[in-house]
Design brief:
Shape: elongated
Structural class: alpha+beta
Strand order of the largest sheet: 1-2-3-4
Largest sheet: 4 strands, antiparallel
CATH topology: GTP Cyclohydrolase I, domain 2
Number of strands: 4
Distance between the termini: 18 Å
Number of helices: 4
């Protein structure tokens, strides 16, 4: 696998009720997700067939579904759930998941807070 080959999507946004405190989970807030899926893309580069690559529409759908149908206290857990779902679908791929909470309720009024979770491809069974 080439370390530089990847399909990625930035700026996937949704409203959800994630947060450590019960007060945060009672309200909705905007979240933004970025996903990079590292794997060999040479087949798609030669074939021009979506079956030979990673359909980023499906990747976005997975992130939005997890982000809007489940509730998490930690951004790390939300990122981990997205990574788990993508690893099930693409076990031979390395993943980087970025999750940002926009306008988090913190002193100093930051514009966002976030986490980046990096995973290696799963070892063959």
């Amino acid at each position: 696998m080439s370390a530089t080959s990847a399909v990625y999507v930035e700026g996937i946004e949704f409203e959800a009720s994630h947060g450590y405190t019960a007060a945060e989970r009672r309200l909705t807030r905007k979240f933004r997700v970025g996903i990079e899926i590292r794997r060999d893309l040479e087949a798609a580069a030669g074939s021009d067939r979506i079956q030979d690559t990673i359909d980023y529409r499906a990747v976005c759908g997975i992130a939005v579904e997890i982000g809007t149908t489940r509730t998490f206290k930690l951004l790390e857990t939300l990122a981990g759930a997205i990574a788990d779902a993508l690893a099930e679908r693409f076990p031979d791929a390395g993943l980087t998941i970025t999750v940002e909470k926009l306008a988090p309720p913190c002193p100093g009024a930051p514009t966002l807070s976030g986490v980046r979770l990096v995973r290696s491809p799963r070892a063959p069974k």
